[in-house]
Amino acid sequence: MEETMKLATVEDTVEYHLFLIPDDSRDPEEHKEILQKYIERIMTQFAHMLAPYIWQNQPFNLKYKPGKGGVPAHMFGMTKFGDNIEDEWFIVYIIKQITKEFPELVARIEDNDGEFLLIEAADFLPKWLDPDNSTNRVFFHHGELCIIPAPRKPGAVSWLPATPPTISQALNIISTYPEKILASESIRAAVNRRIRGYPEKIQASLHRAHCFLPAGIVAVLKHRPRLVAAAVQAFYLRDPIALRSCRIFKTFLPETRIMTSVTFTKCLYAQLVQQRFVPDRRSGYRLPPPSHPQYRAHELGMKLAHGFEILCSKCGPHFSDSKKSLLTTSPLWASFLESLKKNDYFKVGLQCFFVFGGFFWFYYLETESHSVTPAGLIPSRFKMLCLYNYSSGFSYKEVIMSFIFYSSLAMSPGEEILTLLQTIPLDIEELKKEEANLPPEDDDQWLDLSPDQLDQLLQEAAGKKESEPISKEEKEQNYDLTQVSESMKAFISKVSTHKGAELPSGSFCVGVCLGPRPHESDSDDLDEEDFECLDSDDDLDLEMQDPGKEASLKGTLHNLKSYMAQMDQELAHTSIGKSFTTRKQVEPVSQTTNNSSDEEDSGTGESVMAPVDVDLNLVSNILESYSSQAGLPGPASNLLQSMGVQLPDNTDHRPTSKPTKD
Fold first, then answer.
1. Is the bond preceding residue 22 a cis peptide, omega within 30 degrees?
2. How far apart are CA 251 and CA 313, in angstroms?
3. Same structural domain, 194 and 211
């Protein structure tokens, strides 16, 4: 039996798979070579976005994965994004763009939560689609989100399996019927809204701050800005054993500290700022008083220096000697270098190519800064990638950017730091001159989130847009409390099963609606007769009922009504009726006398309980419960928000005054 793709089990990790269609049967070795060439082309074409990106934990990567069971050979990658969820959505954008640039590729992506793309578009999903049957249905193809539908009845559509499809079946369906499996516009819009703004959005996620750092770290970050992520993570996840290396610093001495500007992601900056840490007295890192104007820069530099020292302490003292054995003498690599020289590659942007300590070093100079990459540490298949890209007509910048990106995958952060320290020139006087002309810091007020800003973020996340801002007073004046009673009635009339209760949706929803809207119920552009739609469980039950069962159901309902009538008679003689607001209390007597005759007891002559105003009692009780929450989360607000009702703030109660009794 063919296997299906298993759910990612590592926490905070995203997995992505790229399949080639049509998946014609071919020689496994030939197929492997084709997929590896695709990997090289993809990583080179997107290196200009991937190489400078500061990843929280692990970068985007692709590798060949052989076929197993019913899953064909494909390209596979896994990235641990940790606390920065934006890394995951940036990868979604990259995967989407890959399938757009390479139409013959189909991609699927998931994390430890499963189909998180469906979670993002939960407001617009069809009713039949749930975690139990969503396996192998969600893909990217031609840069668009696709959902393979399920047939309304088994065998209704010949090309759709009755059970969740296998990978091979899904690829065949996408290849044969690409126009019929396109997700609805609302679902695609929900996903596109989440990745809107890339790649320009990357700059908005960065934060620049001044840090008082040792000169060695300044030089390393000048050539490898992305190493700041590894240093922050090393400090953020430190343990007592790791801190032993920071009692006395051996690599980054505090005496060489200078002021510099460091670029973080906002997630990394928040992690570093919010940590409270007192350095060991023996380390030499002493902070000025908190009132000092540069206290924040000294504190950030101290924490970052500890992170870099921890990274370097994890490397063995003779790591560079073991790396020298990786020096390759491949004739292909030598011919690639010779071709670069013959075509004057070293005269346009490339300064020199020389041997240093048994290593090849690539110097890439561009405008004001340059980057250094140890070519001798790159595996031979990465060097083949450079050769392939050069012969395929890529520009020198694309070749070198991919080369630099792959170099980061060949070494650990600590090894890369120590390698850079051994090879790059360290001119402290030049760095001190740059200290006088540092760019200004970014404002970090975004760390403090006000309640109004939080509400705005929640509204944006829910896709709610307001053309004009409305004042609180206007909201209170225009608010209609009938929305509360109408939404509750709609909720009660819905079906509830062991999987939960359905939430109402309609025109009265003024906030976040968790259920699909009527005009967005079907996510698949397919005939309603052939595919599952939003049939309620009531309809399904009625179809299966025979006349005898239907008569029995009517008898049960009649008995239930009689029981309720007897209960009303018993409650009429108790004081419980006084706890409800009745129509007799809120309507004129002339309007209630006529109604009372219809509610008389069946021949007993006893007084009857006045009809209860259900709507008024419902609204008053919910408002009382909502008010008792004092603005905190609670059952009333959760229930109302799940039904799409957003109550205005309660401004009637004043803590300084109490109502007086006459």
1. yes
2. 9
3. no
The length of the chain in residues reads 662
Given a contact cutoff of 8 angstroms between Cβ atoms, the answer to whether 560 and 567 are in contact is no
**Angle in degrees, 0-180, between the axes of helices 85-101 and 185-194, rounded to the nearest 10:** 120
| pLDDT greater than 60 at residue 538 | no
Write b or e for each residue in 26-35: b if 16 or more Cβ atoms lie within 10 A of its Cβ, otherwise e: eeeeebbeeb
Average pLDDT (48-58) is 92
- Domain count of the chain? 2
So what's the pLDDT on residue 238? 93
Q: Report d(CA 662, CA 653) in Å as an integer.
A: 19
**Contact at 8 Å (CB) between 149 and 526?**
yes
Q: How far apart are CA 418 and CA 319, in angstroms?
A: 9
Distance, CA of 249 to CA of 448 (rounded, Å): 34
Residue 259 to residue 293: CA distance in whole angstroms: 13
Count of CB atoms within 10 A of residue 285's CB? 23
Residue ending a domain, among 183, 198, 213, is 198
CB 165 within 8 A of CB 148: yes
- Cα–Cα distance, 35 to 65 (Å, whole number): 9
Tokens of 213: 């750092």
Domain boundary among 163, 198, 233: 198
**pLDDT digits over 34-47, tens only?**
999 999 899 989 98
Backbone angles phi, psi at 398, to 5 degrees: -65, -40
Round to whole Å and give the CA distance between 393 and 382: 17
> Can you spell out the DSSP letters for 575-587?
GGGGGS-BHHHHS
Backbone angles phi, psi at 209, to 5 degrees: -140, 150
Mean pLDDT confidence for 161-180: 92
Q: Rounded distance, CA 135 to CA 148, Å?
A: 10
Contact 94, 125 (CB under 8 A): no
Alpha-carbon span 484 to 488, nearest angstrom: 6
Query: Which of 299, 305, 342 is closest to 218 using CA atoms?
Result: 305
Cβ 128 vs Cβ 164: under 8 Å:
no
Q: Which residues contact 146 (CB under 8 A, 6 or more apart)?
A: 138, 139, 140, 174, 178, 181, 182, 183
Domain hosting 118: range is: 13-198
- Both tokens of 136, joined, read 């192998």
Residue 179 lies in a domain: yes
Tokens standing for residue 485:
């009673």
Q: Count CB neighbours of 473 within 10 A.
A: 10
Q: How far apart are CA 169 and CA 457, in angstroms?
A: 40
Instruction: Provide the CA 538 distance to its chain's centre, in angstroms.
Output: 36
- Nearest CA among 61, 15, 57 for reference residue 42: 61
pTM check: above 0.90? no
Cβ 251 vs Cβ 322: under 8 Å:
no
pLDDT score for 343 = 56
Contact 512, 463 (CB under 8 A): no
Q: Please check whether residue 147 is in contact with residue 178, taking contact to mean a CB–CB distance below 8 angstroms.
A: no
Residue 414 in domain: no
Let me know whether 185 and 37 are in one domain.
yes
